[in-house]
Amino acid sequence: MRAIQMVDLKTEYQRLKKEIDTAVIDVIESAAFINGRPVQEFSRALAGYLNVKHVIPCANGTDALQIAMMALGLQPGDEVITPSFTYIATTEVVALLGLKPVFVEADKQTFNIDIDSLHRAITPKTKAIVPVHLYGQSCDMEAVMQVAETHNLFVIEDNAQSIGGDYYFKDGSRKKAGTIGTIGTTSFYPAKNLGAYGDGGAIFTNDDALAQKLTMIANHGQSKRYYHDVVGCNSRLDTIQAAILNIRLQHLDANINARIKVADYYDAAFASHAVIKTPFRARNNRHVFHQYTIILDSDKKGLRDELGAYLSEKKIPNMIYYPVPGHRQKMFETFGGFEYDLPVTDWLTERVISLPMHPELDEAQLKYITENMLAYFN
Model pTM? Predict the structure, then answer.
């Protein structure tokens, strides 16, 4: 049996080696390392895949969020609602721009933003909502958009973990995660479902004027070279990364299907287990399983740490995403972070653990992982 990896980029590279090597060498030979043709090609290809009018590539997912907030004209002191149970980048950029992060509760089943908590968090100072499609499953975007429309709020989707995911509306229509709100953002960090071999990110929108402003901000605020209309930043997707992403985009759906098969195997192995609660799959979603995150439904102290140590001894990688929620991070103490009462977020933070999840996992590896998990509890 091959050694088990949390994310196996090396094996996937070997599978795509010929295509990727050719694409990278073509860029090197062209010497168009900044804004070369593959950047435009990837932008068009991703827009077609997502069925969105505009895709603006940028340097990373954190920049994507920052540029989105800058383009919407949010002012210092404006409140931006985000979940506490997410990676720090989502809320970090809110504070960086002088805005006020307002943390809301997570749904106990989906891990995503809780709609009742969202309703309660809105004040006259609220200007935007940042729903995070965590672990590969879209938020309840129909409900989020209804709240946003009622209160005239912007919606910035953090789609760093759910690229390729589908959301189904009550009328039967379907949209890709990240294309429903005012702006969508994503990251191409290597471990993502659609990852580069370095950093990268992108911003999506169907608004022509907003797309123009996003493009300007990402390029020093320029409308044309040396003419700077707004304050911007320097955030570009490298041509080599775009060339790699062009290849990986062609394999994205196949990789998602492979991830779903891995999740199906885990689900079957852990079905009806008293302690292991497998990921909930909402009916209005296609979960793309960026992570396979279980809940250890037990109040036994130290259980998760003991399980993690046991799995590590068995050479089974495991991770805790995220051990400290946003409202308990020291960086947000001055924003009143420690004053929040988010019991579901705290409960999840103490009980979630993620197992290996990637398209290269084979049956022998999955059998070894699940048998050892069950052996621990037995």
Answer: 0.95
